[in-house]
Amino acid sequence: MDFGIGFLSNNVMLPIIDLFYSIVPSYGLAIVALTLIIRFALYPLSAGSIRSMRRMRIVQPLMNKRMQEIRERYKDDPQKQQEETMNVQKEFGNPLAGCLPLLLQMPVLLALFATLRGSPFAGVNYSVNLQIFPAEQIERIQPQAFATSPQNIYVSEGEHLKVSAILPGGNKLAVGENTKIEYQTPEGKPFETLLKEHPGSQLIPEWKVIKGEERIKIDAEGNIQALQPGDVTIQGTIPGLAANQGFLFIDALGRVGAIDPDGTVHWDVVAMVVLFGITLYVSQILSGQNTTNANPQQDTVNKITPIIFSGMFLFFPLPAGVLMYMVIGNIFQTLQTYLLMREPLSEELQKIVDSQQKEEESAKQKALPFEPKSSKKKTTG
């Protein structure tokens, strides 16, 4: 059941996309709508995580102080130390409690991510593994049909079907044997028939040998001839229906990567990568992650995290439609953080904040340089 991700994608995400596309025929707007709907649906869980993080940031100094006192006071009594530690956690809250809302929403966000990486926004990949044997060995092997897991393919606007890549004669071949990779629905309807029924789609499958290129010969129609014994991996790709459609400043929703092999720079993708880093940094500032002085190393990590994550998308590129979703999600998260960080604190937390401010002011006064000594001198009689 792949942790429910496939179920959520097929039964929640795709119907929402189809609904919005039927209202406004734009897959770019469908991405925006889908992202906002999911973000609003997860708002309570995300808000709980942000509030918990804000609370822990306030109580952490006091909690650490109490923990240190317990360790020193009961250093010879581990059982009592553990008991008092649990009491402190009950009083202030477990630092890991804020992770629970985040974990609960992860399957939904992963399903959304997986949906936008597939049809119609990007090409769908199928992995076909072959085993090639010498002719004298193949007789001992029982032929068995091979089929990949079915994946959703949009064959026209608003219409998608499950399609698998199959080898009717199996994926074990003898040297010199010929076979063909075919696509079909679980009901057995050939993909070629689907294309004839939707002539405007132009979803021509492509083939690429990932492993063992010298062991086979494959043409554009998926016809294979086995040449040498060994293992072979072939990647078949069905293009996304909307992969080449643009939206706003984005040239193609399915484009992967900011720089082509020939050196062409796609500034729309670069702009989204930069915007992702900026929104992530602003969200950190609003949540207070970059304003702590207690741990300079942690401050440095927080500041370079947006750069690392943004740079990652240059070296491990994603389709432009997925980047757009991530930027929209970051903007939503930033606004949500801004609103929640302005909520009035509870009386308990406000007392802690006031106490910390008094301690800081007192520490600043003590840290001031000594004033010049008085010019009056003692007179000696």
Label the structural class: alpha+beta
Globular, elongated, flat, extended or rod-shaped: what is the shape?
Answer: elongated
Helix content range: 40-55%
Secondary-structure element series: HHHHHEHEEEEEEHEEEEHHHH
Strand order of the largest sheet: 5-1-11-8
Largest sheet: 4 strands, mixed
Low-confidence stretches: 374-381
Mean pLDDT: 76
Number of strands: 11
Terminal Cα separation, in Å? 98 Å
Strand content: 15-25%
Radius of gyration: 30 Å
Overview of the molecule:
By secondary structure, the protein is α+β, with helices and mostly antiparallel strands. It has two domains: 2-116 and 262-351, no CATH class; 124-238, no CATH class. The chain is 51% helix and 15% strand. It contains eleven helices and eleven strands. It has helices at residues 5-23, 27-41, 43-73, 78-92, 99-117, 135-138, 191-197, 267-287, 296-315, 320-341, 347-367, and strands spanning 124-133, 146-147, 151-156, 159-167, 172-174, 178-180, 182-184, 206-211, 216-218, 223-226, 230-238. It has a four-stranded mixed beta sheet. Strands 2, 3, 4 and 7 form a four-stranded antiparallel beta sheet that branches. A hairpin with a 4-residue loop joins strand 9 and strand 10. Helix 3 packs across helix 5 (99-117) and helix 3 crosses helix 10. The chain is elongated and about 85 Å long.
